[in-house]
Amino acid sequence: MEFLTPSHAWWAALAVPVIVVYFLKLKRPRLTVPSLVLWARVMQDQRVNSPFQRFRRHLLLLLQLLLLLALVLAATQPVSRGDVAGSGHLPVLIDVSASMAASDSTGRSRLDEAKEQVAALIDGLAGDRQIALVAVGARARRLTGFTDNARVLHAALDALAVDETGADLGAALRLAQAMARSAAVSDVILYSDGNVSLDRALELPFSVDYRLVGPAAANIGITAVRARRALDGDWEVLVVVRAVGAVGSGTVRVVQHGRALGSQNLTLDNGDNRRLLFRLPAAALGMVSIELRSDGIDSLASDNLAYLTLPKARALRVQLGESMEAWRRALQAHQELDLVRADVAADLAIVHSADVTPAPVTVSVGSIPKAVADMLDRRDAGTGVVDWNHASPLLRHAGLGEVLFARSVLFAPGMDEASLEGRGWRIAVHGENGPLALEQRRGETVHYAWLIDLDFSTLPYRVAFPVMVANAVQEARTRAGLGEVAAVRTGVVTAGDLPAGSSVAVRGPGVELDALPVDAEGRLGGIAASRVGLYQLSGDGFERELGVALLDEFETSLLRNEELQLGTTAATASGDDNPGDWPWWRPLAALALGLLLVEWWWYQRPAGGWR
Questions:
Q1: Does the domain made of 227-310 have the CATH classification 3.30.450.40?
Q2: Higher pLDDT residue, 26 or 600?
Q3: Is 19 helix (H, G, I), strand (E, B) or coil?
């Protein structure tokens, strides 16, 4: 037990005047009595006036001293420290990811349990400790600053709701690090089911007290939805459903405008991933919803609905540089392509200059981008391909092992591959002396840069060249939503195919945004869609719907991790029963009030007792 204000113990000195007043001699009136029998009573009063006789006989003095003692102890604020140790500033991180909405058989969610434990921590808040609440979702949100105001903390806690996204614990810990720069923080409490993503390279200046919440639960949910256009123009929709625990059977339906376009029944065991294929007619354009209904236990509702927007067919817009005949011949093998001028927004740009207005997919040939021009030098010496990034969408299934180049590229003195990566570029094709092709991904765009003109190589005469062109076309179709589309996941999303330069208002679950600018490519980014549902996009003369779903296999799994790896250390779950501080001043104050009532009752009672 600790005393937060031990200096208040000097109030115990008030016992001295209480005792002094008590020992003052009583002034009795002079009376005439008819008998000496009463003289014994006078002798008894004289004995009572002796100090020790008074202590033995007078209950009121004892009650007054006990009352004073209880008040003095309450003023010193005694506290029994619980499992919460450390400094007086305590960040409390609360997981609000989608899996925290999983409920048990009584309908109580994991977040409800976490809020109950945090509320108990706030109620036991000692006078020397301040708490700051932080919500851990796709981004970290500080709900309160450091405060000991229980009303403010309870109000922020009551308003806390689940974000139907994943949880980025690394962002929350970095926020706690920033808070520790302005206040002494030696411990952080995390309330979570452990179903979080984390940057394992973190170095934390404090320890993390991990409180695991929620029981294991059974669940069934949609984890992926994609569609691609078949050769006959119809749509093939792939739906992936995952089951955790004994969930039994269910039904998946594809619905458009209230009409079912397809339905399939399925039976799942624990850990199953079932792939369902629906074939929709080419006329089924626009928004369709995928609905999952479980016949058994389903602990999480947010992963039972997904949306998919099937676009109208149009030709892929391709910008092709002059005198690029090899590329032109390779593109002629592909249908539904439209070669556009340089001033028209393109889906795919294949050009000579590396410094062009980028399309969603850009392939530049024969020049070094200005951003890395000081790092690389071209030489007339020949070279061959040593290795290439087989996972790159441009080079997938393209065998470059026997390709030769009449020129080569060298690193400038003091430069290396790490220098390129520092500026956002990766080597896609390695030559004998340096890179031959680079790759840069930035937001919604990708730029492939061949540093040597392919006319000075054997690549146009290899099978790898039309394969590479086909890869570029396919990636451009996918990014444009023409050949393959995927359902949109919760988080920060981007809407495309909007009027360029317009202003858009967004309304949806928990979102009300006005006057958001659309860029020159018709894209609107940065929409914080943290809830599953439909978002209305409206502007001058147009309206659109954007459907957002959870589609997170990690959240659907409802994992409960007993241990979190935090950098070089591990945080092990400390269980559900972790008491906080217990301040004793409240029961002591209640005791003092009770003693005061007893003293009043004793003083007011009649001499002959209550009748």
A1: no
A2: 600
A3: helix
For residue range 298-349, what is the model confidence (pLDDT) as tens digits?
999 999 999 999 988 788 999 998 889 999 999 998 888 999 988 888 999 9
Q: 26 is written with which tokens?
A: 């009583």
Which residue has 């004995």 as its token pair?
A: 47
Percentage above 70 pLDDT, the chain: 83
Task: Yes or no: say if 225 and 253 are a contact pair by the CB < 8 Å rule.
Answer: no
Distance CA 135, CA 384 (A): 53
- Residue 269 · residue 286 · CB < 8 Å: no
Say if residue 83's pLDDT is above 60: no
What does each C-alpha distance from 165 to 234, 303, 332, 531 come to in angstroms?
A: 32, 10, 43, 7
How is domain 316-477 classified at the CATH fold level? Answer: Rossmann fold (3.40.50)
Reduced to 3 states, what is the DSSP secondary structure of residue 72?
helix
Q: Tell me what pLDDT residue 304 has.
A: 96
Confidence band of 198 (pLDDT split at 50, 70, 90): confident
Which three-class secondary structure state does DSSP give residue 388? strand
Prediction pTM value: 0.66
Nearest residue to 285 (alpha-carbon basis) of 254, 310, 321, 313? 310
∠ CA(398), CA(399), CA(400), 5° rounding?
Answer: 110
- Segment 276-279 long-range contacts (CB within 8 Å, at least 24 positions apart): 276/238, 276/239, 276/240, 276/241, 276/252, 277/236, 277/237, 277/238, 277/239, 278/236, 278/237, 278/239, 278/254, 279/230, 279/234, 279/235, 279/236, 279/237
Cα 167 off chain centre by: 3
Query: Tens digits of per-residue pLDDT, 445-462?
Result: 899 999 999 999 999 999
Q: What DSSP element (H or E) covers 259?
A: strand 259-268
| HEC string for 327-363 | HHHHHCCCCCEEECCCCCCCCEEEECCCCCCCCCEEE
Alpha helices of 39-184 — where are they, by DSSP H? Answer: 39-48, 51-57, 59-75, 110-123, 150-158, 169-180
As a whole number of angstroms, the distance between CA 425 and CA 449 comes to 10
- 534 neighbors 547 (Cβ within 8 angstroms): yes
Q: What is the pLDDT of residue 56?
A: 52
- Closest by Cα among 375, 404, 302, 360 to 496: 360
Domain boundaries 89-216+560-583, corresponding CATH code: 3.40.50.410
